[in-house]
Amino acid sequence: MRSYLHVLATPGAWRFLAPALIARLPFAMLQMGVLLLVQWSTGSYGQAGFATAAAAVSQALAGPQTGRLADRYGQARVLVPQSAVHGLALGALLVLASAHASLPLLVLTAALVGASAPQVGAMVRARWAHRLRGASTLDTAFAVESITDELTFAFAPVLLVALATGFSPVVALLAALALSVVGTLLFAAVRTGAPEPRPAGPRSSGGVLGLRGVALVAAAFVAMGSVFGSLQVGVTSMTAELGRPGLAGAVYGTLAVASAAGGFLYGAVRWKAGAPARLATGLPLLGVATSAFIFAGNVPLLYCAAALAGFVIAPVLITGFTIVEGLVPDGVRTEAFTWLIGANGLGIAAGSLAAGQLVDRFGAATAFLVPPVTIGMVALLLLVRLRSLRPPVRATVDRERVPL
Fold it and tell me: How many angstroms separate the CA atoms of 177 and 77, rounded?
């Protein structure tokens, strides 16, 4: 507890943490919100999966560019116009869905929504890395961030589903839109802890992903994203199949609460094993845990499976951010963190798309095959390339670059 209290007592930390929490809540609502909105508009989980995938892929591709601009010009100069574009895109998606527009138009607009989503989570982590540079408590600070993420992902689906079922998905995403604009602008107005803008340094053709080990950790985050994407579809469709659609948010929220608990305990432990070894252990363990969903044929078992899988998620995420922080130079941290978040988004897209197609063709339970299969493949790759995750003495712009 002393480590957590010490981190949270960092001078000025709460000035950026509080508005960031408001901004991150709608970020946690976005993927499931698009899924529910397009399914409501089209009547198909498969078509909704295409729109959700488009939002996630565009977010994954545009996010690192946002991070690069933030590293170069400062966070506020990027977030303010981005918030305006995101608000317009999300508003357009709501109008088109209400008018039951064609699927291609919905998918294109969903892609714009994802591409313009403010990358507040990565920018908060960049502030922590800047404030606690080289400190032993940085791992704990990343644990705080993962716990915050999980708490938002616990509350956001419950709020989203409650608004969507009580009113409509349009009302639910209108609430997300208001929170996003307000929270992002408040966060941008706080300069405490923000890294100073740095001029662009030398870059290879591979960019930040060309840095030693970064692409490998990003691959692990793709696998993590497949968990979120496929479970969003699987849990939503399974609870509907069981006649309890209003419980989808609560089940998914259980996953997030369990993840927050796992992250809290993980951040409180002084680990003897290095971060690469912890990642190589945690990822296969997550694959085993997610397989419990395959056997969850009723609501109580869904809750149990969510708690089991969730307990492993945050420790894996924390470890990944810790590894990358040690692998990259100071001037590209925001971009590196957005690559991880973007990779997670790609996994969400792939998992959502695959699960949506499986649900439409074979039933809700088949969506739960996606996480263990995807994680198992990446875990094998991780074991083969584990040595590339060992940090150098200190990151520099000209560090060694190796392929994945």
Answer: 20
Average pLDDT, the chain: 82
CATH (domain of 290)? 1.20.1250.20
Residue 257: count of CB within 10 angstroms of its CB: 19
**pLDDT over threshold 80, residue 359:** yes
pTM score: 0.75
Which residues, other chains included, contact 237 with Cβ-Cβ below 8 Å and sequence gap of 6+?
45, 359, 364, 367
Q: What is the pLDDT of residues 68-117, one digit of tens each?
A: 888 888 888 888 999 899 999 999 999 998 888 888 999 999 999 988 98
- Work out the burial of residue 389: count CB atoms within 10 Å of its CB; fewer than 13 is exposed, 13-18 middle, 19 or more buried: buried
Would you say residue 399 lies in a domain? no
- Give the whole-angstrom CA distance, residue 60 versus residue 349: 9
- Structure tokens belonging to residue 263: 């992250």
User: Does some domain include residue 235?
Assistant: yes
More confident residue, 139 or 313: 313
Angle between helices 333-362 and 13-42 (to 10 degrees): 30
- DSSP of 28-77: HHHHHHHHHHHHHHHS-HHHHHHHHHHHHHHHHHHHHHHHHHHHHH-HHH
Contacts of 388 (CB under 8 A, 6+ apart): 212, 213, 216, 402
